[in-house]
Each structure stands twice: as C-alpha cells, then as structure tokens.
Amino acid sequence: MASSSSSNAFRHARSNSLPSRAHPVISKLDEALSGLRTSETTCSSSSSVTCKVNDLQDLHGCVDQLLLLPLVQQSFTQEWHSRWADELLDGSLWLLDLCSTAKNSLLQSKEALQELQSSMRRRKAGESMLDNEIQKYLSVRKSVRKAMKKAISCLKARKDDSTSSALIKDDEAAAFVTLLKEVEGATTAVFESVFCLISGARQPGSSSAWSFISKVTLKRRAASSEVDLNGFNKQDMALESLMSHKTGKVHDLTQVQQLQDGLKNLNLDIQDLEEGLESLHRRLIKSRVSLLNIINH
Known about the structure:
Helices cover 75% and strands 0% of the residues. The chain has helices at residues 2-12, 24-39, 46-68, 70-78, 82-121, 131-161, 172-199, 206-214, 231-244, 253-295. The chain is elongated, with a radius of gyration of 22 Å.
C-alpha cells in the first residue's frame, strides 16, 4: 500500500533532522490510514459513512500534530521545492472545496426536508397531500443529485490525472509529501462515499478509492444487480411513488406515519453527517494554515 511505503520511506530516511525510529505521531497516522482502508470493505450506510467522516477528523488531527513537529519542519524547509508547495496547497484547497460541496448539498436537502415535515404535521389524513410541497422537495433533491454526480465525475477526473513529483524523489521532504498525498487520497475516497450517499448512487469500490495515490490495482467486486438503498433514496422513491399515483391523497394514518417516520430518521442522519463535516472542515482549515506557515517560514 502507498501509505505503508511512503511512511516507511519517511521513517527510514537518512537525515540528522529526523529520528532513526518512527515517531509516535507517524505511527498514529499510519494506524488512522489503515483504519480508513479497512472501512472501505464495510457497508456504506448513512451511519458507516458518518463514521468514516469522524475517522477523517482523527486522521487530520494526526496531520496537524505532524506538521507541528520541529524536526519535520526543519527537514521540510531544508529540502523544499516550489512544485511540492503548489501540490500540497492545491490539495488542501481541493479538500476544503469537497467538504464545502458536501455541506451545501446536505443543507439544501435538510431545509427542503424540514419544510416538508412542517407541512405534513399541519395536515390530517385524507386531506390533500400537499402536491406542491412534495414537488418542491423532489425538485431540490433532483438538483442535489445532479450536483453530487458532477462532483463525483470531478473526483474521478482528478484521480485519473493525479501525478506527484514527490513519488519519484528519494529524500525526507519527498517522503513527507508522499505521505500527505496519501492522506489526501484517503480523504478524497471518503468524500466520494459522502457524495454517493447524498445522491443515492452506488458506493464506490475500494479499488477505485485507494488507487488515487497508491496506484495499486485491486480486484473489483462484481457489480450487484440490487440497488443500494439509504435514507435519501428511500424517501425520494417513496415520495415519487406517491406522486405517480396522481391521487394527491393519503388514505390512512399508517401511510402518513410511515412517511413521517422515514423523514424523521433521514433528518437525524443528515444532522449527524452535517456535524461530522463541520468538524472536519475546521480540521482541514487548521491543516492548511499549518502548511502555509511551513511554506512561508
């Protein structure tokens, strides 16, 4: 794996500015990367994707600690190369953009969902099922799905074009850059899962996610004929099915309750993911500031 090879290179680099044995922060970062890699094989439900986002917070917490190490800063500035600076700064800005895209899409979905919930609470079973409000929600969801699919396409295009000058160098700074690029790859993979979750698309396989930096070819799982359902597309499908009957009526309390329960659960899922992304966004900003401090030192 690229994370293992890059951290080993960093760990064993021959330099008086770095310890001969792995620093605890580097070991902790390796463990965080390994944990994220393992999670690629698990089910990508709303809760598991939120867990991945929370794991990213721990990963970038390790990056923050690494960037603050005096020995790392000394080695990095001594071996600095302007192209590497551009790569890392571009990568940090890219991750912030991905996080903002996810946050904005979640906010749009949440606001439309809460408006629909409020309208449903004011209605009694058997009355008009608020065609306009449902259509408004579905229209927002359609726009969000379109934005997520575009974001996923951008992710894939960037992965295809990704190359790093650090990968062909052999010194401490290059190993450090490679390690940070591996973190970028892991973070990008999780954002791809977030985008797929919000759009209701099939979750990416582990091979596509981790090939971003490592270039390791992994066998893809056979495509399943079943559609992966999560809270987003379950409610989209339920409301679209309701509208397709063109009756505009809810005939019993059971149907009303099922819709309300589904929307309530989805709202809770959105809130959990939203909180995780907000915390991650702060971590990403902190990492970018640390990078800028090293570069401008």
